[in-house]
Specification:
The protein is α+β, with helices and mostly antiparallel strands and about 270 residues long. About 20% of the residues lie in helices and about 45% in strands. The protein contains five helices and 17 strands. It has helices at about 15, 25-30, 70-80, 155-170, 205-220, and strands at about 1-5, 5-10, 40-45, 55-60, 65, 90-95, 95-100, 105-110, 115-125, 130-140, 140-150, 180-185, 190-195, 200-205, 230, 235-245, 245-255. The protein has a 17-stranded mixed beta sheet that branches. A hairpin with a 4-residue loop joins strand 7 and strand 8. It starts with a strand and ends in a 15-residue tail after the last strand. About 45% of the residues are buried. The mean pLDDT is about 95.
């Protein structure tokens, strides 16, 4: 499946019963583009005593992720269409419980985890001091660096790649960070590019990153927090954010899902 170009392999682990120890290797093997199915990440759907299901999320490099916004929206559709949830879905993640809602056949809306951290940080790179906003969604939180870039669409791809890579590993972010470059292109309208840890490259979209950028900009007053449009190479997502003074909550992410293929995995590297 994919959500705005952010693509995932989904395994029903309530049926497959793969051990938690095996899943990182499964993710590394199956997410390799050209050599296997190829994806940004893998989600194993497991049983939960607290929700309709439990999401076990692994990045393409096999590292575990706390949560994934577009993955969560895809998972909402998956459990709805497989009879595991109704029109509203509840998913247990490592970052906490998230709730989704079916809008129509392909559009799903997900309430992301509330931020546990939103703080302005200054960091030095290449001898230049850059200002960003560091956001963690959930607890333990999904880490994001929200970084403004002028003329983002026209930036040299190689230079942007190097900047994303180096910021992702910057010592100001002890557990690393997803780097969300953004530019405001109109009223409540932003353009984003996200370098994702665990993929170690730019992805076509990032749900938690989109929510983090919208949260930071709503807090600063740069956007209203109402129906904020976010354009990315994979499409458009819509974010709604509640602000009460210095407190941000109720971040809702709305966008498309796409079921690309269903089938049986036969990758001989796994066996």
């Amino acid at each position: 499946m994919n959500g705005a170009g952010n693509d995932f392999i989904i395994i029903n682990n309530a049926e497959e019963h793969l051990s938690p120890e095996a899943l990182p290797r499964v993710a590394r093997t199956l997410c390799r583009r050209r050599l296997s199915i190829g994806a940004d990440g893998l989600m194993a759907v497991d049983r939960s005593d607290r929700a309709d299901c439990r999401m076990l999320f692994f990045n393409a490099d096999g590292s575990a992720g706390e949560m994934c916004g577009n993955g969560g929206r895809c998972l909402c559709r998956y459990i709805y269409e497989n009879g595991m949830a109704g029109e509203e879905q509840v998913i247990e993640t490592a970052a906490g419980i998230v709730r989704g809602r079916r809008i129509d056949r392909r559009q799903y809306r997900l309430r992301l985890n509330d931020p546990s951290v939103i703080e302005r940080r200054e960091l030095e790179l290449y001898g230049i001091v850059r200002t960003c906003v560091y956001v963690e969604l959930g607890d333990p939180g999904v880490p994001h660096a929200v970084v403004p870039i002028q003329n983002l669409r026209d930036r040299d791809p190689g230079a942007l790649f190097a900047l994303g890579r180096d910021l992702r590993h910057h010592p100001a972010f002890p557990k690393g960070a997803n780097v969300n470059f953004y530019e405001i292109v109109g009223p409540d309208h932003i353009y984003l590019r996200t370098w994702e840890r665990g993929v170690e490259d730019f992805t076509y979209a990032c749900g938690t990153g989109t929510g983090s950028v919208a949260a930071a900009l709503t807090l600063s007053g740069a956007v209203s927090g109402r129906h904020v449009k976010a354009d990315m190479p994979g499409g458009q997502l819509i974010v709604d954010v509640e602000r009460d003074g210095a407190v941000i909550s109720d971040i809702f992410l709305t966008g498309p899902t796409n079921i690309v293929a269903k089938g049986k995995v036969t990758d001989e590297e796994l066996f």
